[in-house]
Write a structure and sequence with these properties.
Layout (H helix, E strand, L loop, with lengths): L1 H6 L4 E5 L12 H10 L4 E5 L5 H13 L5 E5 L2 H4 L5 H7 L3
Parallel strand pairs: 1-2, 2-3
Length: 96
């Protein structure tokens, strides 16, 4: 499905893992890698399950280690709402 969207000219996508959204239980990195690889040629924002700064650090590492340059951002909701970290801390965890 994602590859088809890219082939049709879509260049910016937001992927939310709905099974994890709002649960604060962490990222399903295997699923994310599959989605990001399917979205090559576009920009991908990830959302779903982020509960702490280590999740953000792992996303930043994944971007370089798995060569997922199209993973360009993250949407964080409940973790910020519950004050698990600040926007400044999140920004730093993602590499500034």
């Amino acid at each position: 499905m994602i590859t088809s969207l890219i082939e049709q000219g879509v260049r910016e996508l937001a992927y939310t893992n709905v099974d994890r959204d709002g649960m604060l239980g962490g990222v399903n990195f295997d699923d994310l890698i599959g989605v990001a690889r399917g979205a090559e040629g576009g920009r991908l924002l990830y959302s779903g399950g982020i509960g702490d700064l280590e999740d953000l650090r792992r996303l930043a590492r994944l971007r370089s280690e798995a060569d997922l340059e199209n993973l360009t951002g993250v949407i964080v909701g409940k973790a910020l709402y519950e004050e698990r970290f600040t926007i400044a801390e999140a920004h730093e965890a993602l590499g500034g």
